[in-house]
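# nightly structure sweep
# worker-07 picked up a monomer target from the shared queue
# config: single-sequence mode, recycle default, output format = structure tokens
# input follows
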Amino acid sequence: MKDWDAVAAYALSLPETEASTSYGQPAIKTRGKMFVSAGHVDGSFHVRSPHDEKAALIATDPETFWQTQHYETWPGLLVRYGAHDAERVARVIARAWWDQASAKQRKAYGDRP
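# output follows
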């Protein structure tokens, strides 16, 4: 995930997604709900993540996953472009999609990544 174009291409490969905007930034949504966006910090993008998972991601890989004070109370975090573990980043994006997906979408997709 070297840049926003790569992140967006992956996110748009997930079922029933669409390119959109969120707070004036490019974003990908499912069912009208944002799960990943370009964010407002150069060199990183934003992805939704429950608080407990967000804390674990930041604790285990702070070079990839981080937050600014703005995101501390928000269920999401920042991800640096070009992270060394692209598969893990893809799983985090897929989880964010799954969390916003409908029950029908989840059933068709399978278990939460």
